[in-house]
Amino acid sequence: MTGLLIIATTAQLSQFVTYIGAGIRRHFCVEQLSDGGYACSGNLVALGYRFILCRFDQNGNLLWYYNIHKTGSEDPGGQSFVRTYDGGFAITGMLNMQYGGLAKFTSAGAFSWIRQISLGSTSSGLSIIESSDNGLVIAGYTDTDILLTKLDASGNHQWTKTIGGSGTEQGRRVIETSDGGLALVGFTNSWGAGGYDIILIRLNSAGNILWTRTLGGPEDDLGYSLVQTADGGFVVSGYTESFGAQAGDNILAKFDGSGNYLWSVVFGYGTTLDTLASVALGAGGVLGVVSWSTPDILTLNIPLTRFDADGNLLGGWIPVSLAGASEASYSYPGIASTSDGGFVTTGESYLIKYDASGATCMGSSATPNLIHPTPTITSPAPTVTARTPSVTSPSYSRETPSNTQYWPCNPLDLEEEMPSGTAFYFRSEGGTLYFMLPAAGYVQLSLYDPSGRLISRPLDGWVEAGEHEVAAVETGEGVYLAVLKYRGGMRTAKVVKF
Fold this sequence. Notes:
Layout: E1 16-20, E2 25-32, E3 38-44, E4 51-56, E5 62-69, E6 77-83, E7 89-95, E8 99-105, E9 111-118, E10 123-130, E11 136-142, E12 145-151, E13 157-164, E14 169-176, E15 182-188, E16 197-203, E17 209-216, E18 221-228, E19 234-240, E20 249-255, E21 261-268, E22 273-281, E23 287-296, E24 299-301, E25 304-307, E26 313-318, E27 321-323, E28 334-337, E29 343-347, E30 350-354, E31 364-366, E32 369-371, E33 376-378, E34 383-387, E35 390-392, E36 397-399, E37 405-406, E38 425-429, E39 432-437, E40 441-448, E41 454-463, E42 466-471, E43 478-486, E44 489-497
Antiparallel strand pairs: 1-30, 1-37, 2-3, 3-4, 4-5, 5-36, 6-7, 7-8, 8-9, 9-35, 10-11, 11-12, 12-13, 13-34, 14-15, 15-16, 16-17, 17-33, 18-19, 19-20, 20-21, 21-32, 22-23, 23-24, 23-25, 24-27, 25-26, 26-31, 28-29, 29-30, 38-39, 39-42, 40-41, 40-43, 43-44
């Protein structure tokens, strides 16, 4: 019997589905980091709302999960985060159900500082970016206007603008453009075709408007997400009641760099509600959109839909159904492109990795209903007002909530399938685990107690072909479940230690 040789893995799993249990967690934003791992932000509802930041490795294993909290406050959560020039993280959201907030963490998740931005009776940050000068730009809302504010890398206020009209506006996503300016998407009922309309605003680096467009129809149409394409144009994603199914569908629309409307597509998977679409730009100009879909009133799906650069459907995939969920539990899902040409998405407590074909290890392909509408486009002139908010530094502390990680399906790596017809075994004898791997590949070995809690993960990396043994040295006396995952399958064994 050969000894176990563990070689550090550099492979990235192309497909996995995992989620974090123990309390309601809503992950709104996700990004792949330079080391191939992932970070998420959102809120932890079960403890009375918290800003949360979590970190996963490239294979979806949870590395750390922190929240910040102030006694007596309820904070609806970190809506968006950005990786900063120093390797850390900055998160924006709402503090104490009233104020815009910005929290800074180090690369290891240590809490650095927090800023409370007070303007109007209610304000919130909904999106954050790092600008080319290492500053932090936040978009959101204050009372009935769009809020756009900039701070330097240390959290010192530089400028704030509000953008609005006679009705209500919100800024849902801000990006830095290729020329160092800004673009923002949200919604408005001050202008447009009726109800709420999607609003797209192009600004310079100082927050001054260059042009504005609205897109919509007679009912409500809301903009949630935005990317700039390689040709300098903009693709917005959102929700529409003006076109598509009666209850509402997702909409994807493109404008060129000067704000000229090019095309739009409306899509949905059910006869009830499809909403909260968020878009990311992938390899080759592929547009990935994650959203909520409700095939019935008791089920929520989190589909990924892919389009080419011209808005032509490439395919859809429905990986997860949350039975018993309700509209009240919707959280804005997040999406990011990955280095292997795929996408990673979040929704509620899930982190889902798709390969370059748009598939993952759970669920199945699906084809949405498509409509190519003719929306009304207008070019309003919003009022821009320079404001000076109160920026303070309240006392918050970092906490580590209890976490349990689950894997609903067998993850797949980038290697070929195990050769068919070859021998494979996995067994336990006297607290030692034995397995024979017919071909080299990525292997993950995990030990769980009878309640399903992860005890240890003695193996998580590349393993050569051949026979191997692992002593379950990290467990005490008792009965445990060992789970061995490998490309093409999963095996389990009972481990009894005396």
